[in-house]
Amino acid sequence: MVSPAAQHVNDSSRQHSRWPLIWSFAQRDLKARFTATALGLLWTLIVPLATVLIYSVVFSVIFRAQAPPMGNGKTVFAAWFFCGLVTWNVFSQIANTGMASILGMGPMMQKVYIPSYVPVISSSLAIGIERLLEAGVMLFILLCLLNVGWTWLLYPFVLVLLAVFATSLGYMLAVANVHFRDTGQIFAIVTQMWFFLTPIMYPLDLIPEQWHGFPLRDLFLLNPMTSFVNMSRDLVYGLQLPSPASVAYAITWTGAAFLLALFVYRRHGRDVSEAI
Amino acid sequence: MANVIEAVGLSKRFRIHRERRTSFKERFVRGKADRAPEYFWALKDVDFVVPRGASLGLIGHNGSGKSTALKVLAGIYQPTSGTVTVNGWVSALLEVGAGFHPELTGRENIRLNATILGFTRKQIDALMDEIIEFADIGDFIESPVKHYSSGMYVRLGFAVAVMVRPEILIVDEVIAVGDEEFQRKCFDYLHGLRRSGTSMLIVSHGLGSITDLCDEALWLDHGEARALGPSQDVTQAYLDEVNAKEAAKSVRAVDPGVFAAPAPGRRGSGQVRFLALETINGDGESVSVLISGAAARLRIHYECHTEITDVVFQLNLHSTTGTQILALSSMAGGKLHLRPGRGYVDFVTDDLLLLGGTYNVEGTITTEGVLVDASPEGSELTIRAAEVQTGGTYLQRGKWLHLPLTGEVNPAEGVGR
Prior knowledge:
The complex is a heterodimer of chains A (276) and B (417). Chain A has helices spanning 19-36, 43-62, 77-104, 106-109, 117-144, 155-179, 183-197, 216-222, 224-236, 244-268, 272-275, and one strand at residues 7-10. Chain A has 276 residues and is mostly helical. The longest helix of chain A has 28 residues, at 77-104. The radius of gyration of chain A is 20 Å and the shape is globular. Chain A starts with 6 loop residues before the first strand and ends with a helix. Mean pLDDT of chain A is 86; it is low at 1-5. By secondary structure, chain B is of the alpha+beta class. Chain B is built from eight helices and 20 strands. Chain B has helices spanning 24-30, 66-73, 106-116, 121-135, 150-163, 180-195, 207-213, 231-249, and strands at 3-16, 38-51, 55-59, 81-86, 90-94, 168-172, 199-203, 216-221, 224-230, 272-281, 286-287, 289-291, 296-304, 308-319, 324-329, 336-338, 341-349, 357-367, 370-374, 379-384. In chain B, strands 12, 14, 15, 16, 18, 19 and 20 form a seven-stranded mixed sheet that branches. In chain B, strands 5-6-7-3-8-9 form a six-stranded mixed sheet, sandwiched between helices. The longest helix of chain B is centred in the middle third of the chain and has 19 residues, at 231-249. Residues 250-256 and 413-417 of chain B have low confidence and may be disordered. At the A-B interface, strand 1 and helix 1 of A face helix 1, strand 4, strand 5 and helix 3 of B. Strand 1 (7-10) of chain A pairs parallel with strand 4 (81-86) of chain B.
């Protein structure tokens, strides 16, 4: 809503970095999350572990789903599923909390100037740190199963790429959420569909290549989350290098999302505090 | 650069949200708003500059765009058109509790606010004690600010905003919330900042503090700049207009107001009852507001039911805090003899020696020390200042003289009261 001529110029000598601020908000989030409940930190681990248990029982015992073998030749459905779930959780939680973060900071943003990306990045930092614990537990389990390889060293790069992708998406959703308050409800449905359309609890091989003439499996491969989940599994579960195609695909999606978020920030980022 | 703030053709337009679709669901169910959006110009083509070290006051009635202007300068709003250039780092205190997070303690909020302003951990640690000492809220500094009183909010907010020693300080009508002592402390500190070269931008309805603290004042009226110049002149022009407007609209019929509240429960023996208190200016017009230092007439309308002698009317004026300011008794003009019917008694003065403000008026009618009628509580008398006043209730006439140790006696510049 700003005409090109309008501008607010601040060529202050004190153009400071926003990272201390982002970090202090993130610390606040983490502190609030871990001190508000009696079990604190444990909750962030109990919930995904329970999910892994439930899904593993349902899918491997009842539906008799088969997971591909680990790098060491054995097959453990729960470990395979956990690996995909960690990747998914990083994505969905960063995107969802990011979406709510600007509105959550509302009263403050009306009184002091805080760039609109600050709450989004700090919430994704906080979530990211929390999810690292979960990833740690997953790696610990794989370690106990004696499934370790040098490819683990590449895993952090996938997580960082995924975090950038999710944060960019979260920022765009957060701006939309300021203008349309039901963005959250819509995205909750989208997230759920997206979860089931990503091969997390079933292997991609289970999807028929052709279905009534549709190249169904190729359609599944269009989903960027398929690439992220497959890359993570290859590195920590299968102990092999992911296919260059999926790496290139994930990087392309992340770059596109980041540029789009940057565009949204330039275009609408300054109007946010008015619309809150 | 000589100017810390330059605003050229600054305009800000808001959309009036009569039927704003704030959800996709509404958008979907009811379609796009069919009416063309309506706009409201909060600021229209306003120009001003603040030279380095100078201070500018913004005045105007409610809704004139003062706070919007500050928010644009603080970077919270983007101007719709025009440019704003800010050369220097700004600390802004907009509304009470600027940028506080309710769940965090006072100390944590200080840290957070200073971080927002770009301070490093070390710098914050160095400032912390000073800020806490200035805010002076005792042990509350360790409890979440959601438990604070509004006074504590202001104390902490002000302390953070000023102790960081900004190059440009923006303050929006917040000091008024604190108690007398804290207000004085704030003003002293603001004076100190001003002397040390901090540029300031202040919004206040207290015209006294504007003339006191600001070199120049900008008078905004419905988003447009009405006057920009030395603060003394601009505030005086603003005050003159406010008074003229009040006078224009206050020619009216006698308003019985609270003076003629329902009979049941009314005290006194009741032979005579108050009907209304009418305020009349020097031109004989019935007005709602009297002007300080001008002629005034207080007319008490009554209704007498039975003939009665030795009647005394009395008006007691109290400040809003309950201190009695004065008592006007008709005894001074002799006791009255009233016959059945309606009538009035007047108190007349050429020179109303009360300063601007709102006073509570209570009227009593007595005969030989026995209460006949008392007006119900809640009647107010509003007096408007004719010139900028600094405080108190009494308009002392006189002038200041400056007597040097040697040489001739020199009257210093005359002070009006």
